[in-house]
Amino acid sequence: EGKVSEYRRCFINDWEKAKNHYKINNFCFNFMKEQLLTSFASLNDQEQDIVLALAIIYMPVGQTNLQKKLTLSQCTSKSTANLVAKPLREKLLDLKLIETLPEGWICSRQISESLMREAVGRADFFTKITTYLLNETGYIGYNVSHLHLIKLMRIALYQGREDDFLKQFNEFRSHYQSYDISVSKRIFFDDFDENWFNSLGYALRMGVLQDYQMMHVIDLKECTAQYQIMNACFQESRKAGSKVFYGYVDLHLYRGDIEGLEALLTDKDSGFVLERMGAVRFLQNRYAESIDFFEQAIKVKKKLTRKRNVFLNGLPGYFYCLALFGSADNKQLSKLAKMLAIGFKQLNSNAFLFNSFIQLNSGLNVYQAKATAEEQKNYLIPERREPHDK
Hints:
By secondary structure, the protein is an all-alpha fold. It is built from 21 helices and 2 strands. A hairpin with a 2-residue loop joins strand 1 and strand 2. Helix 12 packs antiparallel against helix 13.
């Protein structure tokens, strides 16, 4: 019990540190952004056009190539394109409006989205350069291929082609999964513009908010601001049975925020609703009712899949197993052993909660005297490893 209490204390401290770290980072980012935007405003019109073009291009681009893009797109004058040279580069570097990489110039990421929205307001300029970039052909190196996809995503987003953006974003995630959180954060939330965000379509807003939060919930990272925005957006369309509805309910369960959920979960013929009602009852410490809902959900799933052995995935499945374990009834513990055996066949070692199922299985072995606590201690209270075991 002493070890468990210490584990909980560490968890709470880590969560508070994460929230404070987020607030400090957010303050520093906004302070630097305002300084950079002031520097941008001090440039003349020609210099501003060049920096705006870099914000849209997004990828690093060499001086000669940048001149070519500006000239062929006809988004600005030839005299402006000719300014792309060492003196301007040094000036923009001093102002921290650009960075230089081996591949060329790149717009400061801290203001790239603010400048993108500024460029949209210059309709003729924005239309000409984006049209050129979308029709441009040429070799894209592997080391910048992810930036090329982000460039296309951003253009689609700011042109209002939201379906194309979502399609490209899903493609991006399938190829560059390690980048997807940072990309969502950079495009939508680092430089959050409430009016612009609210002008986007409902499905896009909710999809981005839910995807971003789900990845942060798994890593125990602070995303309260996005959670509050999602709750406000959800009130615009509370349509049950949609993907947005499912994501909304699940995120509330992951955060343990179940107030008002029961009023949304009314379709008792739905396997999804039955599983989530089981999770709600579990969080209310009403284990017997929780188990009843979960077992109704299993019947629905068996009927749909025509399989004898089915497993409830994700957090509801884990709560079902915990409810069975908490019952301390031999019949329910036998169900738990069977459910864990099915689960280990269906889950892979990278699945969310996989380690938690291992711990639960070890606890069951100790409870049923199949192993001693000493033998299972590494599974029951494992060493804390960053970031998941926090």
